[in-house]
Amino acid sequence: MKVLLISAPKFTRTSIPPLGAGYLAAALEKAGHKVSILSLTKKITTLKEILDYTQKINPDIIGHTIFPTTFKVSQKILKEIKGKWPDKIIIVGGPQATALPQHSLKNLPADFAVLGDGEETIVELLKKFDEDRGELPKIYGLAYKEEERVVINPSRKLLDNLDSLSHPAWHLMPPDTYPRVPIGMLYKRYPLAQLVTSRGCPYNCTFCAVPNIMGHKLRTHSASYVGEEIEHLVKEYKVGEFQILDDNFTYSYEHAYSISEEILKRDLDIVWKCCNGLRIDKVDNELLKIMKKAGCYHVAFGFEVADNEALKLVKKDLNFAICQKKLKEIKRMGFETAGFFILGIPGTNKKIVEKTIDFAQSSPLDLVHFATWMPLPGSPYWEEYSKGIDLDNYPWEHINYFSPTANKDFTTKELKDYLRKAYLSFYFKIRRIFNVFRQVKLNQMLSFLQMQYDYIFSLRK
């Protein structure tokens, strides 16, 4: 069958290949299907361009990734596609579909939703199209429409052996075709590529949806699997830098250490960074030394808030005193560092917000990412927050990690003011301004400006 995978629309001003679609494409190709990827993360794409590309490919099946922030845009895209080609089968997946399958299928012109790990489910589903659609109830990890109701099948068992998956279909999303505006904006080498070496998270942070989307159990690729993918990207696409997107890359000491060893063993001339928030209590000097030797130059940590009682409120099992001590040690080792913080956690007060901002601006961190508290579908806090809310008319476009969201302890204006203060107090220091501009390359700046131009003018279309 001919399958078109359409990634989630852009909701940040960075641009990276859609790895989720890449894994699905590889699984479908292995099963004998012909696959195309329309990467909406590459550039601002108009609805006309999406429809024209769909007509050109003329697929039997259309798959689309759904995020909370892009839900309404996806609604518009799929409505146009279904209106123009009512007989085409539409399958949705991704965080929003997994967290809220009933709502997603009710509010989208889609026929099926693939939940959680989607590689096995989508291959099995397409096989049933060729055989017996009466078997749909037996496909685990699937939701579908049956007349006026939505049927949600039992969850599929987590895929323990991640090495059984093919590497993402990089030939359908070559890294060197993406703008020079990766996650975090700053980089050392181009082309860049992103890697996911594990799935799931064993922690219970109330603000995070990962355990419910990808499972509480941490599952990892082997070092040899990761090494093969890196070597392929280096040789085939001349990739010089990698961004690891794992939610918990260093949770397993052995996993992080063995990948570093594998890079050294293969004598790969690369640099890499950990873009998501590592647990600072899950790294030590020996691990950091071999990571650095293998080319890692940047590590980011999820601090969240500079107060132990507030950390208990969000069920983040972390001692802030450890954070302060280890951060200084890591900086002495020569790493670039970034920190993630949340302002306005329910149950906290203005004093704790001020304390968090003060810690960040006086710390040796090179970069920061401040967010205001917000509920994410699939997170433990969402269950409490969403009671009594009309999800059909919810402003999904505001569920962005950097969008202020009020709660009973803070007004929207207070959160906006704190967010502004946090960024200004951190970045308006000579050494940090110099450090950022020192790393920005001319061609990177041109790509960034082009993307901002496209973004601004797309709003008028």
Total domain count: 2
Helix share of residues? 25-40%
| Total beta strands | 15
* Largest sheet geometry: 7 strands, mixed
Tally the helices.
17
Word description of this protein:
By secondary structure, the protein is α/β, with parallel strands linked by helices. It folds into 2 domains: 2-152, Rossmann fold (3-Layer(aba) Sandwich), CATH 3.40.50; 174-456, pyruvate-formate lyase- activating enzyme (Alpha-Beta Horseshoe), CATH 3.80.30.20. It is built from 17 helices and 15 strands. It has helices at 19-30, 47-57, 71-84, 95-99, 101-107, 119-130, 210-214, 223-237, 253-265, 285-293, 308-313, 320-332, 350-362, 380-385, 412-427, 430-439, 442-458, and strands spanning 2-6, 34-38, 61-65, 89-93, 112-114, 142-146, 149-152, 192-195, 198-199, 219-220, 241-244, 271-278, 296-304, 336-343, 367-372. The strands form 3 sheets. The chain has a 7-stranded mixed sheet with strand order 2-1-3-4-5-6-7, sandwiched between helices. A 6-stranded parallel sheet has the order 8-11-12-13-14-15. A two-stranded antiparallel ribbon has the order 9-10. Strand 3, helix 3 (71-84) and strand 4 (89-93) form a beta-alpha-beta unit. It is globular. The two termini are 34 Å apart. Mean pLDDT is 90; it is low at 455-461.
Topology of helices and strands:
Layout (H helix, E strand, L loop, with lengths): L1 E5 L12 H12 L3 E5 L8 H11 L3 E5 L5 H14 L4 E5 L1 H5 L1 H7 L4 E3 L4 H12 L11 E5 L2 E4 L39 E4 L2 E2 L10 H5 L4 E2 L2 H15 L3 E4 L8 H13 L5 E8 L6 H9 L2 E9 L3 H6 L6 H13 L3 E8 L6 H13 L4 E6 L7 H6 L26 H16 L2 H10 L2 H17 L3
Parallel strand pairs: 1-2, 1-3, 3-4, 4-5, 8-11, 11-12, 12-13, 13-14, 14-15
Antiparallel strand pairs: 5-6, 6-7, 9-10
Helix pairs in contact: 1-6, 8-9, 9-10, 13-15
